[in-house]
Amino acid sequence: xxxxxxxxxxxxxxxxxPGMPWYAGPSDRHTGAPQGEKKNSLEQERIVLSKxxxxxxxxxxxxAILPLVMAFAVGYFLIFLFLDLxxxx
Length: 89
Description:
By secondary structure, the protein is mainly alpha-helical. The protein contains two helices and no strands.
């Protein structure tokens, strides 16, 4: 048996997988910036919204959710109406 522990530089399996914390994408590899100054790829800037933008988001959410909530409310009302008038009446 040969106990040769030398690294010949071959890649057995690529471990640089997008989405993993250690991933260095193509833009991160050759930035030329020192290691301490490299920006974290997972770090995001905080989004600051104005009052009008927040109001527009709220209106959009309500416009998307309200029809569904109303459909369930009408459905429950009709079920209870059926139970009261036909089945239990």
